[in-house]
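Hi P.,

Sorry for the delay on this. The queue was packed all week, but I finally got your sequence through. Input first:
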Amino acid sequence: MAVQIKRAYDPPAASDGYRVLVDGLWPRGVAKEKLKVAAWLRDISPSAELRQWYGHQPEKWKGFRTRYRRELGRSPRKELVDTLAARARKEQVTLVCGARDAEHSNAAVIAELIREQLEAR
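Then the structure:
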């Protein structure tokens, strides 16, 4: 199947399949019922130190991506990525994040790793 990214503030769609929140913090102002996620994987989110360092500053994206990929390669994050990749082989997976710029978010890095696993098979 596939993996996609959606902002928490975008309306859910039937085509989203398995929706999972991948942020460490719940998105501001979004009710649980409205977000419609099957799971909230807090442990897959970047470390507090990395998140604070990045601060969603575009000029730090490259460094954030490199450092976060390193974090995602270690337990428990690695197992969570592997689980999402296995699910994406069977059904649509939508990674939900609260970032304004979803293409430069932790969800984008997770999606990249999942796609790499799907292509390797």
